[in-house]
Each structure stands twice: as C-alpha cells, then as structure tokens.
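Field reference: sequence -> structure
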Amino acid sequence: MFVYWGGDDSGKAHMKHYAIHNDKTQLLWSRSNRRITKIYSTVHYQGVYWRNETSRKIIYHNIDGFRKCEQETNSMYHHVQFKHDKSSLNTKTSRSNFYQAKRKRNYSQDDIKKYSQIEYINTNLYFDIIKFVNKLGEVFTRDILDYDEIFKDVDLVSMIPPEFVIKDNIELFQSSINIMPYKSNILDSIISKLDLYANGFLDPKDERDDLLDVYNSDKNIIWNYLDEYDRQQNNVIDFLKKYDIPYQMFDLDNDSYKDTFGWEIELPRDYTHRKDSWKDSHRYAMIKDIAKEYVQR
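Structure field:
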C-alpha cells in the first residue's frame, strides 16, 4: 500500500488520475471524518487525456452505526486542463461556486431523513444523498470502524485518516510505502500557491481581500501564508518520525512516477497543473513577480 502524505497543492489530483489509469484502488478519508470513499477502477480503453472506465465507489459512513453503500458506473472521462474564467483575471474565480452549484441537490430535509434510512441503502438515491449532503451522519469513532473492510484491497491512500486510525493500524502504515511529495521548482510551486490564494481555491467561504491589495498593504500576510505550507510539511514529517513510519521524499518535478510507484501507465507531469491559466495575463505577471520576491526573501 502506498500512502501519499501531501497536503494542499501537492499533486494529489495527479495521483488520483495516475491510479485510475493503472486500475488501482484508492482510499480517501474526508477531513470531516464523516466519509471514507473507496474507489475501484477498471479502465477498458484509454488515451492520454481520455479513458473509458468502470468505477465502483464505496462510501463508508456512520448513521446509527457503521454502514457502507456503493455504486458502479460506466463512463467516458475526458480530461481538460483547467483554465480560470476570463473574469478571474481581475477577480476571484468562481470555480468553488461552480462545484458547489454542480453538486447542489434540491433534497428537502424530509427527503434526506426518509431516503437515508437503511431500507434504501442499495438505491442510487441513498448513495447520492450520502455523497452530496454535508454533515449527514456522525463522525467516525474507533469503536465502530471495521478496519479490515476499510483497508481491504487498497493500493493508495491519498487523503490521510485521523491520528487515532493510524495509531490503531500502526504496523500497516509502518510497512507501507510512505511518500512525501515536494517540488524542486520552487518558483513554480510558489506561483501555484499564490494562484490558490488569489482565486479562493482553498476555502469557498474565505473572505480574504484580493491578493494584490493584501500584498500592497502588508506583505507579511502573504509571506506567512506561503510559510504555512512549509510548516505543514514539517509537521507531517515530525508526525511520521513520532510513529516511526518510514518515508521517502518524492520530487514532483524530476522523480519518476513509474520507478517510485511501479505503475506502468504514466501521465504527463503537468496533467493537473493550472499553468494554462497563467498565460498572457498581466495579473499573473504580477503574481510571478511576487513569487520571485518571496523566493529571494
């Protein structure tokens, strides 16, 4: 089992697609500790930016105890490099709002209460409600979790479980291949993180002012924001050392995915990079200058 310990903006989306293209099973533990999603993938035909796939998703959740529901779908996936809306050159992108709208369901509270009952557990309606209704059910506690079921068949963990889960399964994590990603192209990394700040990617509810306004009024706010990524990475490394979990550093810019993970079908290194949004933009030219200043600092 591989465990990918990256935080925000650390290549997890690339890993997700890399695993799918190679028919690997993934485990995603939600930050709210209310959902655990296991994804079985079978790709029948594929090009670099498209695939015909069968996906079986299992969602573990806690409604009156440990439950699971699952759904199998057949689909064509066409990957398109992300670009900001043209209006986002001067304002925050509406990407977060787009995903919220895309996932919005018009279920009433009565619908949710009725169709989340156990008698509907094998229906698509139940699965849809569990998938999209936030804060439905209770957070997981160790006394209800079926670890044998949860970790069965898993090839990749890319959304990390809570600390108590790792403690309960310490031998599993110690014997896994634990990957700590980083970027040697520091300037590219900083531009990407400033892009997240400028466009409100990290938190749709974030009410921070415009990046350039903040930079012009108090640069330290921006520097502290960028420093936090290093602090988070150091905290993860300290955590791994605390529990004697061996890990290896992985350079997203230069190291070989195939040599590291052993999965034959590789994707372009920039598969999920947002660089296409940075071209021909005066705003992003300024962001690049801010990134250069931070790197020199």
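Note: The chain has a mean pLDDT of 89.
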